[in-house]
Structures are given as C-alpha cells and as structure tokens.
Amino acid sequence: MTASSLLASKTILIVGLGLIGGSIARGLKREIPSQRIIASDLNHAQLLAAKEAGDVDSIGELSELCAEADLIVLALPSLATAELLPTIAQLCNENAIVTDVASVKGNVQASAESLADSFSSRFVPGHPIAGSEKSGYEASTPQLFLGRNVILTPLATNSACSVGLVTAMWRALGANLLAMSVTRHDEVLAATSHLPHLLAFSIVDVLAKQETSDDIFRYAAGGFADFSRLASSDPQMWAEIFVANRASSSRVLQAMIEALQALKTRLDGDSPSSLAAGLEAQFSGAKSTREAFLNNHYNLDANKKMSQNSVTFVAGAHGAAIPKVAGRVRVPGDKSISHRSIILGAIADGRTEVSGFLEGEDALKTVAAFRELGVTIVGPEQGKLSIIGVGRNGLTAPRKALDMGNSGTAMRLLAGLLSAQDFNSELMGDESLSKRPMARVVEPLCKMGAEIESESGGTPPLKISSASLKGISYEMPMASAQVKSCLLLAGLYADGVTTISEPAVCRDHTERMLEGFGYPIERSADGKTVSLSGGHSLKATTIDVPSDISSATFFLVAAAISPGSDLLLEHVGINPTRIGVINILRMMGADLEVLNERVVGGEPVADLQIRFAQLKGVEIPEDQIPLAIDEFPALFVAAAVAEGETLLRGAEELRVKESDRLAAMAAGLDSIGVESEIFSDGIRIVGDPSAVFRGAEIQSEGDHRIAMAFAVASLRASEPIVIRDCANVATSFPNFVELSAQLGLEIRVE
Ligand code: S3P
Description:
The chain is an alpha/beta fold.
C-alpha cells in the first residue's frame, strides 16, 4: 500500500488557503493529479487565485462544502481552529476525518474534547514544522513539506484509521511524521519556536527604542539581519500564538531571563580574564550543541560526522584507592524487548502502551523505521510510548532506505517482517552493521520464498522485494534469537506452519511477546522448538519493559571487582534465557542475590543485590553462552581479577557482534596488563586477585559493550584508562556515564 493510494479516492477540504493550506493543496495536486481538493477561505481573492491556478477543484462557503469532504484540513491559526471546531463538527459528514495545522495544540485539544466522542475520535491534531516569515497563498509552494517534520498529537480516542488517513496525506506531501503528547508538543514548541520569535520581536523593539537607532539600522551587521528575520513574521498570528501557549512560553521565558541576568552579572562584575574564560566556555558549549544538532538532523559529510561523533571516555582517575561501588539504581529498559514492542505493536490492531522503553539509539532507529512504514508512534516521553497499530496488513511502503544504525537486532528482525509485505524495501546500517553477516537470515528467508539481495559477502544493505512466503521447518545452525525472531515474524505472514529449532536455548522475548499479543504459538517442553502458523492477527496490549540485564551487568561486575561494594539494581529482567551472567558470576563465587522476584507483563523481573566477594576463575559451560551472549566483555573483566584461569570455548558468535569481541577484549586486556590467549571460538584469561591494571589507551572498535567493560575495569586501574570511540554507548545505555557517577565510578567524557 502507498500513501497516495489511500488518499486518491477521497475529497479533501482545505479550510484556509494561506501559506500552509495553499502548499497542501499544491503539493497534493502535484503528487496525485486526480486528487479532488475543495477549499474555503474568508479571503475570496486567495480562493479565486487558487481555483484559477488549478490548485483546487472547487471553492465555496464552509456550509456548502463541509458535508462533501472525506478529509478536512483546518489550515488556520490556533485560536481560530479551536473556535471553528464546533462548527465543523456540526457541518461535516459522520465519517469525515478532520485534522489541523495549528502551532499550539493545548487549546485545540480542549476544544475537540469538549465535543462529542463521535467527532473527537475523528479529529487528529497535527502541526507541520514548515512555517516561515512569509505568509499567504502567494508564498505557498508544493515542496513546502518535503523532508520537513510534521508532528501529530493524536487524542486518546482517535481511531487508527483516522490517524492513518492524516498520516497518508503528510506522507504524500513528502513529510517525516513524528508524534508526541499535546503537553510535550507545546513545551517543545515554546522553547524551539515561540521563544526565538519572542526574542526576535523584542530585540528589534529594544534597538528601535535606543537613541542611536537610526545608526544601528544603517550600520546593521549580518548578526542583526539574521536575528531580526523572524521579526518580519505575521504579527497577528504570533500574538495569537502567545495567547494560546501562554503558560509554556512564560516558563521558558523565565529561564531565558535568568540566563540573561547571569550574563549581565558577569559583564558587570567579572575580571576581564574570568569574563573571557567564562564567556568562551559558555559559547563553545552552545556552538558544539548546535553542531551536534546539525550533525544529527542534517546529512553533513561523513568525515565531519565521524569526527564530531567521536567520544572518548577517560575512566578512573582515583589513583591507588579502589572506589566502592554502592547505591541503588534502575538501569534503562531492555533493548531486545524495546525493539520487539515497537515491531509487534505496529502490526497489532489497536493502541499498544509501552513503559520502561529504552530511549537508546538502537531502539530509536526501530521507532524511526516504523514511522517511515506509516505507523504513528507517540513518544517516547520518559520511557513511555503509545503505538497506534496499523494491523497486520497496514504497513505502507517506505519512501527511502530504512537506516538501522548500529542495530543488528533491528535489521535482522525487520528483514523477516519486510520480506512478507506487499511492497519493496531496503535496510541499511552504519559502518559496523554494514560488515555483519546477514546470510544467516537471508538464506532461510529465501527458503520461505523471500526475495532479498545483499552485498556479495552476505552483508547489508538488504534489498527486499515483495513476495509471498510459505512456512518451513528450519534447524538453526547457531543459537541465535535474532534469526529465530526474524523467521517467526516472517512466519506470521507465511502460508502454513513455520517451525524453528535452536541448537541451544536462546532468548525467547519474541515468543513471550507474541503470546502477550494473543498470537497462537506452540513451544516444545525443552524450549528449543517453536512453531506458529501464519494469518492470525495481533491484539494491542500493554508492555512494561524491565531493565536490561545486559546493561545491569556492567554494574554487577563493577561491584564484584571493587572491595567494600554493595549495590542494588532494581527491576532487572531475569528471563531464564538471559540469566547466564547471574549463573556465571555465582559460579565464580560472587555474592549475588536475586530479590523480590515477580512477573511483569509476561517477563520475570527481580532486584539484584551484589556485594564484593573474591572471585575465582571458571570454565564457562557451553549451555550458558547464548544466555550470556552480550555479557562476556564485562565478564572477562571479572575474570581478570579472579583467582586462577577462566576458559571460554564454543563462543565463535562473539566474533560477529558489533565488533569481534574476542579480539577487541584480548587487545584491551593486554594493554591494561592482563594475560589472555584467544582461540577461534573463545578465550583463556589469567586472573589475579591482587591485580592493579595499568593505565592505557583502548580502542573500543565503536562497540558499546567493549567501551563500557573497560570503563568498569578502570575501577581496578592505577591510572586512567582512555577509551576511544565510545559514542555507541548511547545505542544501549544512554545514561551510562551519569549512573556510573552516582555509583562511584569516575568517567570523564571528551
Ligand atoms: C538479540 C539477540 C542476540 C544479542 C543481541 C540481541 C535479540 O543476538 O547478542 O544483542 O534481541 O534477539 P543473537 O541472537 O544473534 O546471538
């Protein structure tokens, strides 16, 4: 399905043919020439001009046109929109879907919610971030929304098909869709749009009132021109915006006044040298914030991007005394479960509410991909998000390659889902992901009938053509939850039964979550075989994502290697297919207790308490490998201070993670003075309970878990450990440095 095919048969009424309304009409006509567009505006000249230009098919009074429309777009300012809604509710037909473009949403929402549910369920508030200082129909252009963000703020009562139609309109106009709550929207806009306009209007005002104002304007430098551009925006519209968004504007203005006051105090009182140093520090901070923003939001050239993204950790400046790791924290949500909550929520019927979602870059890539597939996802806001499911056949064709960033999980799981859709798609990734093996999913998917092209080495990008799949029985050559999940997702759409067997038990979040969404699956008693038949639907549910045991591991090891430590990690997921790290640490003699066990949304959760105890080296049982697959970098650090040797064999999968983790860890351990030997499938680490690691420079190879493992190792180092290329820590554990500081680890970010 494409956005245009959803819209083509509809009649769209645009109320208000200014810059935004005119651009919607022109853009739609260009994209879908047969699209019927009708328009109403108090400014008759504007209407006539649009009709003459062929941008609209019919013009007239609201009372004449409203009943004809399938989709009504109120392209008016906030106050006018809120005021007009009751009239629209009366005039429109009972199935018409209504949206708006107002830049403040609180008052519009209040107006909609005062009307009957039968109307408010069909009113989907929206806001294109595409305005400019220009206004009026003459300024409108069909490309206005191309590549621009449009924020939807769906109401709790909105039906999925209302949101779907509004989404389709903005997609046809080339916009990127985001969604957030009304409160968040108004706060964000107060800060990013309303405050700058308020300052622009007042700076011109202040300067105009200066005695020398003529001179100021005559000799106006570029800075003034840049700054005052905003002050040429429509005064009436902006006055109304501040009436509508008074409270949020006042809050952010207060913060601005305090910042300006602090600057003034500094100008009046600081010595020249401290004034210069203070201002320079403040300005550099602002400059790098802006560069980081541009870097993330616009495609700067790759080299520049790399250098700006390079992050170094300088860990452990504590000298000889080893800090204690103590306190009580909750690490962020589980990455595997966060990805899956989006994927299954997107194709379910109804609205799935997620809490505890990991706002790390990997899971956010999955959110962005599903937005591009036409799904409205509200949030995340403080770990909560709401996914308005489009149903099993409701995804729409992406308009560009889906960028999965660093995330192997996202790429492999999406490969399964996308193989079975009625549109083509492409999956790409960053430098690390572009080297990772995809044949493990491409081969079995092709056995199911999928059509996928990869690079010659079986690596991304993956070009997926639409195909019909049939169920297969597949014995996975490796214990990979990603491969299993990929095939299960393809199996949802396949004809017949898909059965997957794994050589050793690996994580089962997909199976548990499918059950949570009411999808029938069968699992063997030993947990090694799962099967499902295609064709059933998923029902939206509520998901509480537990904390990620893989992130908790870094602090478990931190406490396990630092004498005097006593740490409590709250609400950690202890799914039996993930607790290899608990089993292995206990085998090594760790003082680790699992407290307050409970089940939350189908996943077992507990608080983990760990106190320092002398560890001993162990031979890691092979069946624990898939259960601890992401935890080995940290476990190797524990092994380095254990008594005796630790041996791991049968873990060749570690060679194909975000980096070759056996090689990266062995090199890093060697640099800090730890003896190890690597094999094709494992490592032997020679532990020393009295070890004091050397300060060294470590290459993390851009692998988040290598970076965090050596940050933890710094607890036992005599000098700082400098860890390069740590930006990807944000993929799985965005607040790692802050939480580390709370627990007593010192990490400086450069
Ligand atoms: C994951 C499975 C594991 C793990 C990865 C996340 C998942 O990979 O390493 O970080 O969410 O299914 P494999 O299943 O390929 O070993």
